[in-house]
Structures are given as C-alpha cells and as structure tokens.
C-alpha cells in the first residue's frame, strides 16, 4: 500500500491507509464487478467486468479483504449510465 495517503484525503482513503488491506472489491447490486490487490506500485486488477450502462442500478458497495460488511455504500437510485 503506498504511504502517500494523507489526512486531507477522502475518508475512504484514510480508512484504507489505516487498515492496510490486501484486496479491494466493488460490487453493484450484489454482483462483484471489480477486484484488485494492493501492491507497492498501486492496484493490481484481478477482476474488471463490463457494466451494461443501459440497465438500472440500485446500490454500489466497496469492501476490503473479503469482509462481508462493506466499508462504503452508495445508493444509485435506479440510475442508468
């Protein structure tokens, strides 16, 4: 994990710096669409699925180290695009 994450950054970046996780996962509507491993050089992509931009989306979640409780959730309210 790069050491350049400072206090002035977004709370999610601070949390990542504090936890020092090995894996980042992003899911949309309970389907994992992105997974990456933290390295000294940044993120190494392990999974990057295409997303159908015309389909309504309801929830995006970000999880660390396969924890079933996400560290961040965002309601997408049925948005497309």
Percentage of residues in DSSP E strands: over 45%
Structural class: mainly beta
Along the chain, the helix and strand elements come as HEEEEE
What does the average pLDDT come to?
A: 88
Largest sheet: 5 strands, antiparallel
The tally of domains stands at 1
Taking pLDDT < 50 over at least 5 consecutive residues as the criterion, the unreliable ranges are: none
What's the shape?
A: globular
- Order of neighbouring strands in the sheet with most strands: 3-2-1-4-5
Distance between the termini: 31 Å
| Number of helical stretches of at least 4 residues | 1
Written description of the protein model:
- This protein is mainly beta.
- It has one domain.
- It has one helix and five strands; from the N terminus they run H-E-E-E-E-E.
- It has a five-stranded antiparallel β-sheet, with no helix packed on it.
- The radius of gyration is 14 Å and the shape is globular.
Topology:
Elements: H1 11-19, E1 23-28, E2 31-39, E3 42-48, E4 57-64, E5 72-79
Antiparallel strand pairs: 1-2, 1-4, 2-3, 4-5
